[in-house]
Specification:
The protein is 41% helix and 25% strand. It is α/β, with parallel strands linked by helices.
Length: 246
Amino acid sequence: MEFTVEQRLGDGVLERRFSLGDIPGILWTPGSPSAPVPLVLLGHPGGLDRMYPRLAARARHTVAEGFAAATIELPGSGDRPRSAAADQARADLRRAVQAGERVGDDIVDRLVLPLVDKAVPECRAALDVLLSLPGITGPAGYAGGVISIGVRLAAVEPRIAAALLFAGSYVPRSILEEARRVTVPLHVLLQWDDEGNDRQMALDLFDAFGSEEKTLHANMGGHTGVPAFEADAGNRFFSRHLVATR
């Protein structure tokens, strides 16, 4: 990992951009921590610079509650090399949605599964390095992003002790089977009127999770209408499962 740009934000949060090989990322930490803090890995739908305002707001809120936060760019997004197959699948999905047609399983599989296969090992590699830095400790949490990435990561990565998942993207049916292997505590957000989300698939996925503790917060409104109070609820969730288990 190589740190490239560093700045202190107005609330004392230290923001450092880094590169992990050819993968760009951002780390936010408390300015003067009295002890090592747990890490929350922030997921997003891709395009680190485009998503920066929302990611930085999430990160600063997370750091204010006593955590470190970090994120990395998704494969095929931002300045990373594009995937012609993913671009074609995305175009096929867009055409189906605009035509009012059902989005077929083949389109969803072609779009999501290769992304999950590439992104999850990169998330795990990022955890290897981030959790070895001074001032950061495990266990770690995962919050947001493409929900299928969160499902796979929670199923295979033992350092993820809790996950806050956003039910706002299409889910391959094979991910439903992987969800049965997820046993960590879960906090799932669902926007009831999300025009780009298959609500029933999101409910089926929640039902499939094997976790003994799983909570669904369903709010009225579209994709970007998540109520502000959910940020506080998410931090309380991580405080219960990251701080208490240290």
